[in-house]
Amino acid sequence: MPEIVVQFEASSQPVEALREAAYRLISDASCLIDTIDGRHICRLIPKDRTGRNPDEIRSRFLDLVTDQNLREKVSAETAGVRNVIIALAFGALAREREASQTG
Amino acid sequence: MARFQGASAFAPASDLQLLPLRFERVSEDRYVVSNLVGDALILTRQELDRIVALELAPGDGLYERAFEKMLISVKGQQSQLQLLAMRLRSRMAFLQEPTPLHLFVVTLRCEHSCPYCQVSRRSIDRERFDMSTETALRAVNVALSTPSQTIKIEFQGGEPLLNFSLIKEIVQAARRKAPPGKYIEFVIATNLALLDDEIISFCREEAISISTSLDGPADLHNKNRPRPGGNSYQLTVDGIRRIQDALGPGRVSALMTTTQASLDRVEEIIDEYVSLDLEGIFLRPLSPYGFAIKTKQFDKYGRQEWLKFYERGLQYILDINRRGRHFPEFYATLLLKRMLSDLPTGYVDLRSPAGIGLGALVYNYDGKVYASDEGRMLAEMGDETFQLGDLATDGYGDLILSAKLVDLVGGSLSQCSPECSSCAFEPYCGSDPVYHHATQGDPVGIKPLSEFCARQKFVLGLLFRLLEDSPQDAAILRRWAGR
Q1: Residue A93 lies in a domain
Q2: Which of B173, B170, B265 is nearest to B219 (CA)?
Q3: Using one digit for the tens of pLDDT, what is the confidence trace for B247-305?
Q4: Which residues of chain A have a Cβ shorter than 8 Å from any chain B Cβ?
Q5: Would the ipTM clear 0.90, i.e. be above it?
Q6: Is residue A32 part of a domain?
Q7: What is the dihedral of CA B257, B414, A82, B73, to 10 degrees?
Q8: How close does chain A come to B18, measured CA to CA in Å?
Q9: For chain B, what are the domain ranges?
Q10: Contacts A75 to B, Cβ<8 Å
Q11: At the top level of CATH, which class does the domain B96-400 belong to?
């Protein structure tokens, strides 16, 4: 199956999301990502065993990138509150253990 | 004249904030969206985008759903964060009770010759493949030094009843040496072929439970589990009935293993369990260990075939429940408990960090100690990756704090693994490093290529659909989970 090329503007598309999407696509295609002249160029090399055609692989990759962009946004916006919750959860645990050892 | 104020007067006083969430696309425009502790909704993309953008208002329905599932909060409101923290702590509480499970491989000998045997049983040489009393007593000392107040000692093989005298010694030693307040449960995992009155009497006196193997109707079971005389099925069924009569119906359970010959017969297999008054069934695929690899049994069916088998079986089991018989599928039940409650799981494969060592230790017949049952199965294939030490030289602290285990456990956190860290199913899942090491040569594994991951996503997706779309099935599934 021929190589599939998908390009993105580097200024508007973080490469991290492309890497994550490439990882999730591993069962269908291997992906090489180069950044040239302000564009991320993703070369998707379909796996022999995949049952998907090139259009389906391209479409799936774009879906994965879209999802990953949203994940990155959620992760960035909730990092602070996630740390607070984890500190509340396990900080209390450490205090309980300390109290049981000293008391 | 007094008048009601407009809805805007009751809007939250401060701004909304997004709480940590993860999502997974399960079909074209359907997403499972879960919070830090696994409360989940099925949403369209538009709904998901609205929540992330906080384009919500009281009364629009989505605001209430997102609030209820703790996907959003009001800035400055501490109570929701504290509740999430408390629930997260509860879900991880298994870490406070390390190593509750201790598996004693009292012999590797077995009189069956199952082609899928995952432990690579031996048929001869008592001297070489039986655990010695000295080794067993050392293992008892290690098991009793674990901090957990309640521990379970499970006797495994081979066929452990071939070394029943050692089982008696271990039970008596553990009872005698247990410190005050330590509670010990015992289980014998046996094919029941050697069951006799003495064994039943001992099990009654010592409150020992029995776990056996039953693969389905006679022809299927005997094909999967050959033994001299070709009577494995009859011996197993007779044994189950004798234990039910002598010890009570809840004291014997059975496990099935799916072979290629099972794939078209899930209903018959389930009927067998129902007719024997067993309390449920665990629909299990073959695992990639031991003779299952050597005899190529593992390669005889693929992922899709097993998933179809499982789905058909689950639907059939739900139908039995709809007719009034409480009969759970145990794997779904384990997952449902993770999905619908914050109880910490005792099932080592559904934990992160993984249950290796922290959930279970395996004392092999030769004194070697492994981090899991599958770890010792790999060792019989020549791969000692999960050997933690030897009873001749190592105590509990040496085993649990060994650099090898610390590395393996540290690397097993699904919260930090690629794909898992952002997967909506992560709160209900585990990492199973032994499986990934066995199949991919790496304990973390490449999840898009992982059969474990595919199976988890399929079964969890199926359970979510049933909970969301089928009120009658949802009521049954909730009952299985005790909710």
Answers
A1: no
A2: B265
A3: 999 999 999 999 999 999 999 999 999 999 999 999 999 888 887 787 778 888 888 99
A4: 20, 23-27, 63, 67-68, 70-71, 73-75, 77-78, 81-82, 84-90, 92-93
A5: no
A6: yes
A7: -30
A8: 6
A9: 15-91, 96-400, 411-469
A10: 422
A11: alpha beta
